[in-house]
TrEMBL record:
Subcellular location: Cell inner membrane; Membrane
Source taxon at top rank: Bacteria
Protein name per Swiss-Prot or TrEMBL: Cell division protein FtsQ
Gene (name only): ftsQ
Topology relative to the membrane: Single-pass type II membrane protein
Transmembrane segments: 7-32
Organism: Craterilacuibacter sinensis
Length: 238
């Protein structure tokens, strides 16, 4: 081989190309990691009512690292996502030295028992709120289903002028609703939407005119309902 000038020339050419590639790689690595390309500006946008500028500044100053090329987009997104009211953070680079971050907040729909909140998207999140919100109680994993039911029940109750205050669903998928006037609706399983609609249609025309306090309305009957009135006394037998 050492006497083969053509083979030696090919090897030399290959080695030269490898050296050029190594040089280009080293130069590119240096440029990418060079302090010549810092992130000089972080532009944060979004309609934010709960996330504070102090929280955003803390994340920007303490959680982000790297140059314009090496800053970890996924890690940056996750860092802003740690804030309690942040539903999503969208992050992208803008040449030559800027990060654009769009922050999307949760919008609270209800409380989940005594632990966290449910957003309008049906997702649970851990945050505190001083809002007056309905309270949902249900099995783990039923947050989305209960959020949808709350929206349907609220709509169905509009003719009655009443609103859901607390909503329960047990492991057997039986439903119970407490209204903002203190009346409890026993809906059971099955056709719960039809039953709550039946109540709404009868509240102003019949139930609210009863001369007794209505405590519970049991709608688990095919064509009617039973009413519990604590202060009702049956007429004495003659």
């Amino acid at each position: 081989m050492w006497d083969n000038h053509r083979a030696l020339g090919a090897v030399a050419t290959c080695l030269n190309w490898l050296a050029v590639l190594a040089l280009l790689f080293a130069g590119g690595f240096y440029l990418v990691h060079s302090p010549l390309f810092p992130v000089r500006k972080i532009n944060i946008q979004g309609q934010m009512a709960r996330v504070t500028p102090v929280q955003l500044r803390y994340i920007a100053e303490n959680e982000l690292s790297g140059t314009f090329f090496t800053v970890d987009i996924d890690q940056t997104r996750a860092a802003f996502g740690k804030l309690p009211w942040v539903r999503e953070a969208q992050v992208r680079r803008r040449w030559p030295d800027q990060l654009d971050i769009m922050v999307l907040e949760h919008k609270a729909l209800a409380r989940w028992g005594e632990n966290g909140l449910i957003g309008t998207d049906g997702q649970w999140f851990d945050a505190a709120s001083d809002q007056s919100l309905p309270v949902l109680f249900g099995p783990q994993g039923s947050e989305g289903e209960m959020a949808q039911a709350l929206a349907r029940f609220s709509k169905a109750l509009e003719p009655s002028g009443l609103k859901p205050l607390r909503l329960w669903m047990n492991e057997r998928r039986a439903w119970r609703v407490e209204l903002d006037n203190g009346v409890v609706l026993e809906l059971g399983r099955g056709a719960v939407d039809e039953r709550i609609h039946r109540f709404a249609q009868n509240w102003k025309t019949t139930l609210s005119d009863l001369p007794y306090q209505v405590d519970t309305v049991d709608l688990r009957y095919p064509n009617g309902y039973a009413v519990k009135m604590p202060d009702y006394k049956a007429p004495a037998a003659k």
